[in-house]
Design a protein that fits this description.
four-stranded mixed β-sheet, 36% helix, seven-stranded mixed β-sheet
Amino acid sequence: MQNFASGEGYWAHVDLNEVPNIKSPPPGQKSRELHNRCTKYFKGLSGQVKLFPVAFESGAGCVLTDADGNRYIDFSSGIYVATLGHCHPKVTEAVREYAGKLMNCHDFTTRIKTRLVEKLAEVLPGDLNGFQFYDSGTTAVEAGQRVLRAATGKHEMLSCFYDFHGKTYGGVSLGHIRSFVYGPCRAPGMHMVPRPNTYRPMFTRPDGSADTDRYIEFFDEYINKATVHNVAGFVLESIQGWGGSVMPPEDFFPKLRKYCDEKGLLLMADEVLTSWGRTGKWLCMEHWDVVPDIVAIGKGFGNGFPVTCVAVREPYAESFESISASSSYGGNPMACAAALASTEVIEEENLLERAAHLGDLALKRMEKMKAEHAIVGDVRAKGCLMGIELVKDKATKEPFDDAGKLVYQKAFTKGLAWIPAGHILRMSPPIIMEDEVLLKGLDIIDEAIGETEKELT
């Protein structure tokens, strides 16, 4: 295994003469047989599986192979998780070592946990140096909420329209998910407000761009009129992932940080999806030189191994002591080994720079699609977090859900494994991807969009 920058001999090199390689139209017979056997008992599938019920057998780097031997370029990373590609040798070896050495000892100190927290304190910005570990993004967000309340002595929180913060009651109460199973209302004290969307702004300047100042003014008015004046702070995604890779204006988070400081509110960033190299930084907030008071880190943190982290600024770190912070699986040696190995790989292979480069390359290619296709309303990318928004009309921006589903299925059939979100096509390729592989994947999407336009317009 060599540093990515060295090029020659890199372990995850993809031969585009061999990938994609569709031997039988997917989902093939073996995939369907496995899927039918599994779903006889396994329920509650994601929308992407329902749209394309393929069964995967293996993954290596940026390539996935299904049960029928079809090979796909991976533009999903297992839903933003395998940031370093599938089965990175260093991460695999780290987990293997501790699977045979020490799997779990609750929250007792271990050498591998000590090395990990020291590394986190080194790479994270500002004074984010209080940590606790968990096994899922939702659990980390819930713990972050408890820290927020403990640090302030207040209970109300503000989140934003179309945010996603997990599927527990606390996470759902901060997010856009609606389901009767969570009850007829959000948890007490949870409020949602609009946030700037560069493509679909609610408050605009004369030139039509998002007016961040008016959003901040609205927040202030909302807090004064709609809360009981017991607001602990804001909880929001740095970039909305589930909402469709929705990017904020460049001035939003600096102005929100300033507002929170002026009003005595804390700022919690849900970076489960956007952290650990996905956008070209350790934390996405670093793009705007903003340090949150509390941050949830996950998904790519362990490159597929279930490990997440809550990081807290030094003035509030002792709040962990009052929230019963430990968990059964959080910080187990295998998890810490995976997270430390993933962190070291990002450093050793210069992958923050690599992710930023891939984002720039993708945006140029997607801008060409936008110019050439009537149904492409907007394209966006920050590092390897990308989105294409499909519309029925560029002037009205009416969402084109049917096109989104069809483009997703067509591209998958051609050998691209990726993520649908209604009319928004989401992409999260591994940050180790080579330029030619990225462009090949985007070519497949371009071709699928063209075919869909002919069928639906």
